[in-house]
Amino acid sequence: MFVTGRLAIALGVGVVPLVLAGLSGFSGYAALGMWVLLCAVLVALDVLLAASPTDVVVTRRVPARSRIGEPVPVSVALQNVGARTLHAVIRDAWQPTAGAPAERQRLDVPAGERRRVDIPLLPRRRGELVSEFVMIRSRGPLGLAGRQARHGVRGAIRVLPAFSSRKHLPSRLARLRELDGNTSIQVRGQGTEFDSLREYVRGDDVRSIDWRATARAGTTMLRTWRPERDRHVVILIDTGRTAAARVGDGTRVDAALEATLLLAALATRAGDHVHLLMYDRVVRARVTGVDGAALLPALTDAMAPVHARLVDTDWAGAFAAVRTLTTRPSLIVVLTAQDAAESARSFLGAIPDASRATSILVGSVTDDGIAALTRQRASREEIYLAAAAERTMRDAENVADAIRRAGGEALAADPEALPPRIADRYLELKAAGRL
Fold it and tell me: Most exposed residue of 22, 51, 139, 220, measured as fewest CB within 10 angstroms of its CB?
């Protein structure tokens, strides 16, 4: 049972005139009691005449997946199997991050009929969105009170990363096609594969001339080369406490997911194998052995429910887990935030030695606001903030130097610029024959 605001109005309609009339003593209290009793009788009558909310069959229509920030068409259908018309107020119990409308949905369902109501969602957070029940309130004909019932009809949506860095993909794919034979590579380099023969033109590298083919053809023939395929790209995403820091409109781990999706889309088009590992102290997500068109759906599905944890990352365990993914020559991309020498010691101590067969790329998300603080020195407080910002930037550069001395490469950029920078470096390694 529940009561509505109309009951308060009805009580006020009877009580206020009695107070204004100045009635007192037994007659005044008697009149007041009679009015309250009348309202109670009307409430009981309203509850009795309301359609039973339990005589309703509730079904949902919920998509299994959606992307963050995109409208989600969700609907709830009510089938009234009772004998009275149902005047319902519906509450679908989604959490606040689902972006459900604040107002309750109202619906009238005649006896024996079925009605559907749309509940538009606009998710604001990755992961699993769940509604465990639908609450139905059935109003009586007077609108003073009614009955309510909870229907345990579960609905769930997995909200995937936005993949806003997709806009950078066409230009990188065009460059990949140039490397891959549409415009053949004309310089020989370690790690390239023979593609085809063509006639020599002025300006070509004479080291690529195939003298045997030249003798057979009677004209100068040139070998063309293309980047090797079937290489391995291992992406390690740090989900420890440093990844929980907010940068721009999201967290560092959100920017890492964007960089992962762009690099994976590019690498799978290049014919390489992509492996994903999300790690802090244990494996939070793992994707391996998936290629082709199934790769991006598998990555987004695995990454969606993973959020940063407020724990220090076990880097020895993380790189040990990386070694279980592949033993082939590969590119290891570590997406983390190593901007302080003290907290980066365990990372620097565990980073594997780079070699000719394995390249290590460390990508970090930076905050443009820190660089802006170094330029503001109008007051004492701003001078102190500028000094702290410069110290932070210097520490980050020291860590980057240590990564380079260990044989890796360090890239740092804001959340918008980091994904294309990592993709560009991948293409540069391809062109140089190092991958």
Answer: 22
Residue 345 belongs to some domain of the structure: yes
Residues of the chain with pLDDT under 50: 182-191
146 plus 214 within the same structural domain: no
Q: Could you write out the DSSP letters of every residue in 390-434?
A: HHHHHHHHHHHHHHHHTT-EEEEE-TTTHHHHHHHHHHHHHHTT-
* 325 and 280 assigned to the same domain: yes
Query: What pLDDT sits at residue 206?
Result: 79
pLDDT of residue 78: 92
* Residues 38 and 132 both lie in one domain: yes
How far is it, in rounded angstroms, from Cα 395 to Cα 391? 6
CA dihedral 26, 28, 31, 37 (to 10 degrees): -80
The residue range of the domain holding 205 is 192-227
Question: Are residues 115 and 235 located together in one domain of the fold?
Answer: no
**Residue found by looking up tokens 């793992």 in the block:** 286
pLDDT tens for each residue of 66-101: 998 889 989 999 999 988 889 988 998 898 888 888
Cα dihedral across residues 324, 330, 334, 335: positive or negative? negative
Q: How far apart are CA 22 and CA 13, in angstroms?
A: 15
The answer to whether the beta carbons of residues 42 and 146 sit under 8 Å apart is no
Say if residues 312 and 245 touch (Cβ distance below 8 Å). Answer: no
Round to whole Å and give the CA distance between 172 and 324: 30
- In a domain? residue 173: no
The total number of structural domains that make up the chain: 3
| Same domain (yes/no): 213, 339 | no
Q: Examine the domain organization and report whether 151 and 202 are in the same domain.
A: no
Gap between the Cα atoms of 354 and 406, Å rounded: 7
